[in-house]
């Protein structure tokens, strides 16, 4: 069965995109599902790469130009016959089922370079996004045959790379903290997700799924959750809500902040419980959704 593709995205920074990408991947690979999972890091901050590879292996990988920025530059600007699959490496734990395609800080520059390069060739922004998503789509095809799930961890904001990832995804997860500030941009971001498609003329609405993260037992969070659940039930809704709530937890923060980076991937059975629950809910959804429309009209 071809892998399901899941993007974890939100234009708001610090809401838990990377934490959820990595913990979800670990829960899918090491939890009861025993899935074979690939995390694709599309963020120049390279947090997921650092977490999954460990510092030494990531440094080597970047020095050998085996990160996604080098691949994109080689494939699009230099038109070299490169293969995305050559960048895939086992994660530092659960390396038989958990894999990573790393990023590097240089991705920021390469993304700009691609936009400049393609716009000088009279490609507008939509076409730039289509070039990138078509390339990723083609290159992921052989990888989809050998993985169960592919997870894109995306950067804050809405970059051309994020757009490309959204277009390829069966399922889009939008981590959100249920507070007023985090919710300000949620609707407009979810609208962006809903209509992302390479086949713009025939796009059908694809509603993203909000994951509530850093949830506290406070009145404000409770009220926001109620408001969001009400919005997610309307006929004209811009998002759905997953029922799993991820608590604000010092242990999650400790692991995600890198304090345990040299250890195993770090979530012990207790810390993993909520992500195993999330993984079950997400996989169940991913299995039910139809394939995205990725081909250009
Ligand atoms: N459930 C949680 N409980 C406590 N802390 C959390 C939780 N989830 C994430 N954090 C912390 O919040 C911070 C931001 O998390 P993370 O890096 O996953 O967010 P992000 O959305 O990927 O950020 P960016 O937009 O910079 O990519 C980190 O310090 C992480 O440790
Ligand atoms: Mg991140």
Descriptors:
single chain; alpha/beta; Rossmann fold; 46% helix; 15% strand; binds adenosine-5'-triphosphate; binds magnesium ion
Could you describe the 3D structure shown?
The two termini are 26 Å apart. Strands 3-4-2-5-1-6-7-8 form an eight-stranded mixed sheet, sandwiched between helices. The model has no long low-confidence stretch (mean pLDDT 89). Helix 2 (47-53) crosses helix 3 and helix 4 (68-77) packs parallel to helix 5 (107-120). It has a single domain (4-288), classed as P-loop containing nucleotide triphosphate hydrolases (Rossmann fold, 3-Layer(aba) Sandwich). Strand 7, helix 10 (219-231) and strand 8 (240-247) form a beta-alpha-beta unit. The chain is built from twelve helices and eight strands. The chain is an alpha/beta fold and 297 residues long. The chain binds adenosine-5'-triphosphate and magnesium ion (MG).
Helix content: 40-55%
Query: How much strand?
Result: 5-15%
Q: What would CATH call the class?
A: Alpha Beta
CATH superfamily: P-loop containing nucleotide triphosphate hydrolases
Give the count of structural domains.
1
CATH architecture: 3-Layer(aba) Sandwich
Order of strands side by side in the largest beta sheet? 3-4-2-5-1-6-7-8
Give, in order, the helices and strands.
EHEHHHEEHHEHEHHEHEHH
Short account of what is shown:
The protein is 46% helix and 15% strand.
